[in-house]
Amino acid sequence: MKKAFEIVDHTADVGIIAYGTNIEELFCNAALALFSLITEPGSIQEKSHLNLRVSSDERDSLLVEWLNELIYFFDAKHILFNRFDIESLTHNQLKATCYGEGFDPMKHKIKMGVKAATYHMLKLDKNSDGYKAQIILDI
Amino acid sequence: MARWQGQLIKIDDYRWKIPENYKTGMRVPGLIYASKEMLESICEEQALEQVANVAFLPGIVGYSFAMPDIHWGYGFPIGGVAAMDINDGVVSPGGVGYDINCGVRLLRTTLSEAEVRPRINELINELFLNVPSGLGSEGKIKVSQKEMNRLMVEGARWAVKRGLGSEEDLDVTEEGGCLGGADPGKISDKAAKRGIPQAGTLGSGNHFLEIQVVKEIFDSHIASIMGITEIGQILVLIHTGSRGFGHQVCTDHLRVMEQAVSKYGIKLPDRQLACAPIESPEGQDYLGAMACAANYAWANRQCIAHWVRESFSKVFGKSPEKLGMKQVYDVAHNIAKMEEHTIDGRKVKVCVHRKGATRAFPAGHKDTPRRYKEVGQPVLVPGDMGRCSFVAVGTEKAMKESFGSTCHGAGRVLSRGAAKRSIRGADVIRELESRGIIVKTESVSALAEEASQAYKDVTEVIGVVHQAGISRKIAMAIPMGVIKG
């Protein structure tokens, strides 16, 4: 099976490279990569869900906005997600249902505090295998 | 990461220039403060390309500066300084960074190493209990939305009004702990929601609280004005910023700036340099929001300083006054400020972006606090937790050359990932303990990322700014106890 994502180094921060056979899968994998940096994804149970709508001007900035939306829910509401169901995705709008649960210090080990997704070295490419995106995260 | 192969011209042993013609579009040259040895490691990544990219920004005057602690950031390098003419220049959130007004505050005590060493574990435990730290940590102070609006406008004074500190603290805080022009109307609901629960918390990442021992005094007169008089004296250094609040403000406004770039027809070599004219609605909105975040950070350090005093008081059974716990100074190292500078004999109003850089105003400057009027504004330069930190002062040379700016710390050499792969958190604790440094943290694994090996030696950094004359080193202290968020 093709890998879903990888984690890459950046001096003071960290980057993710996400893959997807289609654009929806790419967005899901980028979100999974984000939460794999924050905690052990296996420790998150699907106890609740949240409907999210995100919009932006272009598809690559939509990816940044999507991750920033998830970071907001983690930082302000302490919600951890491990499954993402993308219902619609155009070049500038996304509608998704995200599944997960509230942070529980007894259950979830926080590995890293991701604070923002950036535009720095942002890349979103399509090739014969599908989509590939690179996003650097501020931690 | 490819090595930077660009063009550098040596000016002297501590100054290097990237000529204006290095890249078409640069409006000014780049100026890097570094020794030849430090340049070797600086060129291992693309930070100097970022120095050249910053030189593209409209209205930039003088140089695009890099301090010796420079490392690779987003858009702007960390350790970068850029001044833009307010008439035709831009303001760029990337030139401030995500953690708006991340900064340091230094307290001195009249306690000695001999008095503190036997009780260091007890003291660190008390501080760990009293100062909320780590991820997801929430403040001990409950802030309503209405209170949050006041906090954003009043900064450190908000905390002082609630009994957390004194008027005297404000006198020795950059801007008196309150940046003017704060406009809570420019703060998104999301930013407020991230900020409210995190007010009065140390946070995580590279933020820390450190008990230090003075090891060297280079200028006893200036040090004594700071209240630093003895080798072996105990100091406390607090390093934190505006938490998730500042990050959300930056994220929100970068989005607006992305659109402003095309609206105003600004040509940029890197998207993360997104900016808007200072006088435009987008520019003014950002500055109003940035001031809110800067004030939040000053309130944050004010609260934490108070709890540090309480913790010392509890452990030593004496009031903070009896323990001589006075504030030396508090500086911002991620901020944009409107300042007046002299360029070619002409007084010009500029917006100085300092990202991972410290203001270093000289003796006699109107914004240098009264207590330091004759010696220059204190500059606080923390190193990593295994080495040392410095106290310096601003100079006339900094005012003339670098828009009154100097370095802010050690600067990373190893990425977080590389540090984690080569160093174990538990080994870091053991190694530091063997040298008499106690570390307490929420996350032992994350400690590896902050190990000494991950940073440049701050002694070299301070050596460069001292030799170049953009600040003067006054004292050096080493850690004895560290709380890592």
Entry keywords:
heterodimer, A: 139 residues, alpha+beta, Archease, Possible Chaperone, Chain: A, domain 1, five-stranded antiparallel beta sheet, 8 strands, 25% helix, B: 485 residues, tRNA-splicing ligase RtcB, 16 helices
How are the SSEs placed, and which strands pair?
The complex is a heterodimer of chains A (139) and B (485).
Chain A lengths: L4 E6 L2 E8 L2 H16 L9 E8 L3 H19 L1 E11 L3 E10 L13 E2 L5 E5 L2 E9 L1
Antiparallel strand pairs in A: 1-2, 2-8, 3-5, 4-5, 6-8, 7-8
Chain B lengths: L8 E4 L2 E4 L11 E4 L2 H7 L4 H8 L5 E12 L6 E8 L4 E2 L11 E10 H4 L3 H11 L14 H10 L1 H6 L5 H5 L17 H10 L9 E10 L2 H6 L7 E8 L2 H21 L12 E2 L3 H36 L9 E7 L1 E10 L2 E10 L2 E2 L18 E4 L7 E6 L1 H6 L3 E2 L9 H7 L2 H10 L3 E4 L2 H4 L10 H11 L2 E14 L1
Parallel strand pairs in B: 3-4, 18-19
Antiparallel strand pairs in B: 1-2, 2-3, 4-5, 5-13, 6-10, 7-9, 7-11, 8-9, 8-19, 12-13, 14-17, 15-16, 16-19
Helix pairs in contact in B: 4-11, 5-11, 8-10, 10-11
Structure description:
The complex is a heterodimer of chains A (139) and B (485). With 139 residues, chain A is α+β, with helices and mostly antiparallel strands. Chain A has 2 helices and 8 strands; from the N terminus they run E-E-H-E-H-E-E-E-E-E. In chain A, strands 1, 2, 6, 7 and 8 form a 5-stranded antiparallel sheet that branches. Chain B has a single domain (9-413, 455-484), classed as tRNA-splicing ligase RtcB, CATH 3.90.1860.10. Chain B has 16 helices and 19 strands. Chain A binds chain B through residues 7-14, 56-57, 61, 65, 68, 72, 75-78, 103, 105, 110-113, 115-116, 118-120, 122, 136, 138-139, and chain B through 45, 71-75, 78, 98-99, 134-136, 190, 193-194, 197, 203-205, 244, 247-248, 250-251, 254-255, 258-259, 270-272, 274, 412, 415-418, 443, 445-446.
